[in-house]
Amino acid sequence: MIELIKQPWHWAVAGVMIGLTVPTLLLIGNKTFGISSSLRHICAACFPANISYFKYNWKNEIWNLFFVVGVLLGGIIANQFLSNPNEFIVNENTVKDLKALGVTDFSAMMPADIFSVENIFTLKGLIFFVVGGLMVGFGTRYAGGCTSGHAIMGLSNLQLPSLIATISFMVGGFAMTHLIMPYIFKLF
Amino acid sequence: MTKTNTDNIVVEEFVCEAPNNQLKKESLASNIKYLIVGTIFGIVFVKAEIVSWFRIQEMFRLQSFHMYGVIGTAVVVGLISVQLIKRFNIKTLAGETVSIPDKTFNKGQIYGGLIFGLGWAITGACPGPLFAQIGSGFLAITVTFFSAVAGTWLYGAFNNKLPH
Fold first, then answer.
1. In terms of Cα–Cα distance, which of A145, A142, A120 is closest to B127?
2. Four-CA torsion A31, A33, A37, A41, nearest 10 degrees
3. Cα distance from B130 to chain A (closest Cα, Å)?
4. Following DSSP, what letter does each residue of B66-88 receive, concatenated?
5. Residue A25's closest chain B neighbor by CA?
6. What percent of chain B has pLDDT over 90?
7. Which run of H or E residues covers position A12?
8. Chain A residues lying within 8 Å of B4, measured CB to CB
């Protein structure tokens, strides 16, 4: 059993479990699923700076912070006890495309060429961590949610604004991957 | 969303996108159940490799069905669950009626959505996987996380100057 769990999970298993998070949160505490709100609560709790957007009773939303601490713990548990003993597999066409851009490491879930601690104070770090992170935080709040709040929770509740947001996420991702990323990799 | 209070000062009405709609107060300890759900969620993120930058690249290059399968299945399961809850008026553990606020359209969903999409392809992470990536040992992602908090803060500071 444990050997089976250590294998990479099929998309259908992951999809069902993520989908079930929606009714689970609703039924155990009337909570609407959404993760990016946690970033707002962190701002409200730590750096409200008298900004009206951060002046609210974040303690009433503390469940969301418990949830994301859980996600962090889940990452630790999966990595420490359930890690895949086999080789990490990337689609061969993706490998070919990324090799052409200059990525060389395909051995783990994140390429060490980019996502290593040594890169934090480099141009790569500035683009992939700082600028990328800023866009994720700013964009999700501007859009009023992320993949969880809009694509999963919003679409589950048949919300048109969430469909518009989800399409926008995808358009942004396609534009970055195909139009902008080739130029970014030329910088290194 | 703004409204004017009795002193004619414009105050922002608090709208949380992932709100706590439970009327009954919860103790701090009872929040442990959300920690447990989050932990399972985090394990799924790592084991189904949703935290992988390569899986996100495969998705945006249309070279793998994996992420489409994950998100599509999650939406179908979520949709069926929400419809069942509404249809049979299934109550929460505290005996309350489930309430899911409707989302209202504003242009932020397009502008913000595009900005997030650009960032998603660079970082390989939505906010959820960010936490799981750090947990699974990619410590450089803590920088991405703090930048995402900073991005959220910048939105909060300038949101009334942005088109919505």
1. A145
2. 30
3. 8
4. HHHHHHHHHHHHHHHHHHHHHHT
5. B34
6. 85
7. helix A11-29
8. none
If pLDDT is split at 50, 70 and 90, which confidence band does B4 have?
very low
Nearest to B74 by CA among A155, A169, A146: A155
Phi-psi region of B30 (alpha: psi -120 to 50; beta: other; left: phi over 0): alpha
Give chain A's count of helices (H) and strands (E).
10, 0
Question: Which amino acid belongs to residue B153?
Answer: W
Closest-CA distance, B7 to chain A, in angstroms, reads 16
Structural contact between residues B120 and B131, judged by C-beta atoms closer than 8 angstroms: no
Q: Answer whether A62 touches B (CB < 8 Å).
A: yes
Tell me if A19 and B75 make a contact (CB, 8 A cut-off).
yes
pLDDT(B5) > 90: no
Q: Taking CB atoms and an 8 Å cutoff, what residues of chain A touch B20?
A: 29-31, 60-61, 63-64
Among chain B residues, CA nearest to A185: B122
Note the pTM of the prediction, 2 decimals. 0.94
Place of tokens 């998309």: A11
A109, B51 Cβ separation under 8 angstroms = yes
Among chain B residues, CA nearest to A156: B79
Looking at the complex, does the CB of residue A182 fall below 8 Å from at least one CB of chain B?
no
